[in-house]
Design a protein that fits this description.
about 375 residues; alpha+beta; two-stranded antiparallel sheet; 11 helices
Length: about 375
């Protein structure tokens, strides 16, 4: 990024007193309302709070910096953060920064695929965020997705977040603690936000890895458990994670080649791309692993059902013997063998016991019982 000429220090400090309040990353944050979570101007790596977004823009564009040559970029920029803004709220921001209507519409409605587009001098980056949250104690944790849209201009960054997770407050505070990085301009914010999103992918992927290991251990354990519902839930979560991770590889790779990104930030973006690649390979391995686990579980269920049916059939055959004999002697015919014999009852009971014992030993020897 080209360096700029700045006003003398005394004039700069007087300007801060007139136009804004100087704050460092360790100081209290400004109080914001509605969908606007935070905004500030960043000059020479330091945060400057103003009464409005428009004041911050005027401070950066008119009140502080003077380009060294026509066409050179400003060293100061404005960062505006919004959470689920309405159409009217985002339209006000769009008028201040001159955002393209198509990008504004995408940022309002969300549900976009990860992408990187350019509208004149403004780049529009869309990323999906993921979080592992507990929704139902019976189902355990599930993957929820959100979105972060980033508008990047020569002297501004506008982040629009959808969803309850993936907050950028810690990212802003961490970045404000590194004045040298903030001097790199809006590209530093883009890298910090992208790195934050990819770190979220890594955390969720590690959590899913633990669940996959638990399911695999349960499926191949001697105890009989029904893991089909849990396996299908994991497959759904893996699909959601793939939809977030896979399409982002292209935009992150493209960012490294954009002219507004300084060489130092390009190196950091390549590191983010490397982390994203590892997460993508990890997620793909989940999908490949869950399929044989599900097949093995269904095979075990089928085998267990067959074993139960064989046991039921074996016991049914054993109980059929006394039932058949008792049915014959229950027909109440007058002239039947052994009816008038003193030892007939004991003979029949011994016969029933012997046949049942023989059948039981035969079924046990063949593995049916």
């Amino acid at each position: 990024m080209a360096m700029t000429r700045v006003r003398p220090a005394r004039a700069t400090m007087s300007l801060f007193k007139q136009r804004g309040r100087m704050q460092t990353s360790a100081g209290p944050s400004c109080v914001r309302d509605s969908a606007v979570i935070d905004w500030a101007a960043y000059i020479d790596g330091h945060r400057v709070c103003t009464d409005s977004v428009g004041d911050a823009v005027r401070l950066v564009r008119d009140g502080r910096l003077e380009p060294a040559e026509p066409g050179e970029e400003s060293a100061g920029f404005v960062w505006v953060g919004l959470h689920e803004p309405s159409a009217a709220e985002l339209q006000e921001i769009a008028e201040v920064f001159g955002l393209h209507p198509l990008a504004v519409e995408d940022a309002i409605h969300a549900h976009q695929r990860p992408k990187l587009e350019r509208y004149d001098d403004v780049h529009f980056l869309v990323m999906k965020t993921v979080g592992y949250v507990e929704r139902d104690p019976e189902d355990g944790e599930v993957v929820e997705t959100g979105e972060i849209m980033v508008f990047v201009g020569t002297d501004f960054v506008v982040t629009v977040r959808h969803g309850e997770h993936g907050g950028l407050g810690p990212v802003r505070r961490r970045l404000e603690g590194n004045a040298e990085r903030l001097r790199q301009g809006p590209a530093a914010v883009v890298h910090a936000v992208t790195d934050h999103v990819v770190d979220g992918y890594t955390a969720v992927a590690d959590a899913i890895q633990e669940d996959v290991d638990e399911v695999e251990e349960a499926v191949f354990s001697p105890e009989r458990t029904d893991e089909s519902r849990r396996i299908y839930r994991l497959k759904r979560e893996v699909i959601q994670l793939k939809r977030a991770v896979g399409p982002l590889a292209g935009p992150v790779r493209s960012l490294s080649g954009r002219r507004f990104v300084p060489t130092e930030i390009k190196e950091y973006l390549r590191d983010v791309e490397d982390h994203l690649t590892r997460v993508r390979e990890q997620v793909e391995s989940f999908d490949e692993l869950l399929n044989p686990i599900l097949q093995a579980h269904m095979t075990q269920v089928t085998v267990a059902d067959n074993q139960d049916m064989r046991k039921i059939s074996a016991w049914g055959a054993i109980f059929m013997v006394p039932t058949a004999i008792a049915g014959i002697y229950g027909m109440n015919f007058k002239f039947m063998p052994e009816l008038q014999w003193r030892y007939g009852y004991f003979l029949i009971m011994s016969l029933i016991g012997g046949i049942c014992l023989g059948l039981y030993r035969g079924f046990r020897r063949n593995g049916w019982l």
